[in-house]
Amino acid sequence: MTTPPPAKRPRTDDPDALESSSSGQESARSNNYERGEVWLDDGNVVLVAERTAFKVLKSILSLHSEVFRDMFTIPQPADAEMWEGCAVVHLQDSKKDLLYVLRALFDTRNAAWFAYGSKLPFTIVSAMLRLGSKYQIAQLRDDAIRRLSESFPPRLNQFLNCYTVGMPSEDVEIQNNAVQFELADVCIAVINLSRTCDTPQFLPPAFYLSAVIDNENLLSGWTDRDGNHWQLSPQDLLRCLNGRGALQNVVVKQQRPLLTGTASTRCTSVRACEEALEDRRDDLYDEDLDDISHQAKALTDISCSWISDVTLCAFCEKEFKKQYNALRSETWDELADSFDLDGVEWPVKEPTS
After folding, report:
1. In the chain, where are the structural domains located?
2. What are the boundaries of the region Disordered (predicted)?
């Protein structure tokens, strides 16, 4: 049997042949990308963000993302950039955001991320929502929405944080079981996320929290631990300030019995109740009159309101609590109107069974 002659090697004096065989491999090497944390030995595609490369599997990306699935069906040119025999795909994302997403999809040690009760830093949840939306990775987007819903919920009785059930300070975290927030003014970031990721259900509670934080944080914005700076647009800043005025009017109505020192119509001990109201009012004036006049926390739970600090007859206590809770519920239902959030369905309708 005759042995066929070996295939000819490209002539070294043929520049076109040399470029055809090696340009793709050399292009990746010459760029001096930094190898990222997620680098699979059996990977078959290299994703590059901010000059950091990650080697992963097309099949897994395609399974989770329709965008990547469509991207990989596009034929590559002969001189496409390659690294270790894998096509190089450049993405316009930060390397940290991409790393968070690839950890979630490829690192089995992070499977607990999606377990109920696990708590993730806001920066990871933010990346999951933004890239999950951009690349249509439903698992990441849905999990991020579930987590943020714990702190920016659709129901008033679920809206539990340092501004509704406790005295806030600049170091207090919003309490929840899903996301680690460095500061309460993370609401500024959530407003921006809601705008870009089509999650309008977070806007009313996020605007409420923005309206009750101090002016310095509201105007300067918030920087997360990855260095991303979040700031309200001029239009949203105006919405926030106008909405704050509406909240202040509600607070005045909630405190009307206290400010006027007037007992309820069914009071059984008018003198005692009115003296108690006047004493508490005087105490508040002595403590911080300026804070009272600028108060906007209209959703404070009744257990933390002025009513809990005054000894009243049963009729006065019942009547004032009824009035307070009615105004509180009305304020919650009208948040979208108070902050001029056109097109936002609020309050969110109860799901039908």
Report:
1. 25-93, 126-232, 247-337
2. 1-33
